[in-house]
Specification:
There is one protein chain. The chain contains 8 helices and 17 strands. The chain is globular, with a radius of gyration of 19 Å. It has an 8-stranded antiparallel sheet. The protein has a single domain, classed as ApbE-like domains (T-fold, Roll). A hairpin with a 4-residue loop joins strand 4 and strand 5.
């Protein structure tokens, strides 16, 4: 059976579900259910999401749902592993630079913006008990799970799709955060490594084969916009509270899970010049694109081809 694909938009980004020797309809239905639950649970753009209600409810620790507990555990683990480069307390900073709505609306605004930058509160300020499933957010701290939340959604969606199909393999891509589960097609999943996840899969460019695990790409060029002549993007430097000034415009990382891949990719952009050595120390395969367009491959990054039909 040939690889089958279905695509749509959710969570403000493109969703692509590919199956190998599996029921595409069942896989897509499972993915849609996961994404709907994610949106209700930890979207920062929905005032009725569980995350928004927690943020607006004062600093007292409250019991949270299993999904939000999983999302918080992933976010705080990422913060610890990256020495705070990937930090969930950047919500207020994101709003300060104008990223306070769905990106399609953010990028079309042209009115001036007054930006006051200040260091973010830091992940240590969060009171989280995984076993008790309680979360306390200090007053004035706003959470944003963007650096791990979408990747977690990819992982959960891929696992859910594989659980219902019970055979073959599944690939789920959410805006370039790609997770796989089950058996890949012969030769592996063909992945077009592009800075923009909306680039057609048959476009020219570097294509790699992914046999298992996940790949994520983070960068400063796609979710970027201008307000009143100021160039802005969505990757916040926790030290300044503003968009990071990095020698890398894109980082792609392969890891066992999409959460780990996205954590490393985002941290690499924020780490700047020290990113290659840091990625190597972790044994991760990565591809960094410099601000000048130069490409740096790290570790066991797969051999590239120009094959078409990629994810």
């Amino acid at each position: 059976m040939a690889v089958q694909r279905e695509s749509w938009r959710a969570l403000g980004t493109g969703v692509h579900v590919l199956v190998n020797d599996a029921d595409l309809s069942a896989a897509s239905e499972a993915v849609r259910a996961v994404l709907a639950q994610v949106d209700r649970t930890y979207s920062r753009f929905r005032p009725d999401s569980e995350l928004s209600r927690i943020s607006d409810g004062g600093s007292e620790a409250r019991r949270i749902s299993p999904l939000l507990a999983d999302a918080m555990a992933a976010a705080l683990r990422a913060a610890e592993l990256t020495d705070g480069r990937v930090d969930p307390t950047v919500g207020k900073a994101m709003r300060a630079v104008g990223y306070d709505d769905d990106f399609e609306r953010v990028r079309t605004r042209t009115d001036p913006i007054a930006i006051r930058l200040e260091p973010i509160p830091g992940w240590q300020a969060i009171q989280f008990d995984r076993r008790a499933r309680t979360l306390g957010v200090p007053t004035g701290v706003e959470l944003d799970l963007g650096s791990t939340g979408k990747a977690l959604a990819s992982d959960l969606a891929a696992w859910a799709a594989r659980a219902v199909t019970r055979r073959g393999g599944v690939l789920v891509s959410l805006g370039g955060d790609i997770a796989t589960a089950g058996d890949p097609p012969p030769g592996g999943w063909r992945i077009l490594v592009a800075e923009d996840s909306d680039v057609p899969s048959d476009a020219g460019g570097e294509v790699i084969a992914l046999h298992d695990g996940a790949i994520a790409t983070s960068g400063t060029t796609v979710r970027a916009w201008r307000r009143g002549g100021i160039a802005l993007h969505h990757l916040i430097d926790p030290l300044t509270g503003g968009p990071v000034d990095s020698p890398w415009r894109t980082a792609s990382v392969i890891a066992a899970t999409c959460v780990d891949a996205n954590t490393a990719a985002t941290a690499a952009i924020i780490r700047g010049a020290t990113a290659p050595a840091w990625l190597e120390s972790l044994g991760l395969a990565a591809r960094l694109v410099g601000a000048d367009g130069s490409i740096h491959r790290i570790g066991t990054w797969p051999d590239a081809s120009r094959a078409a039909g990629a994810a």
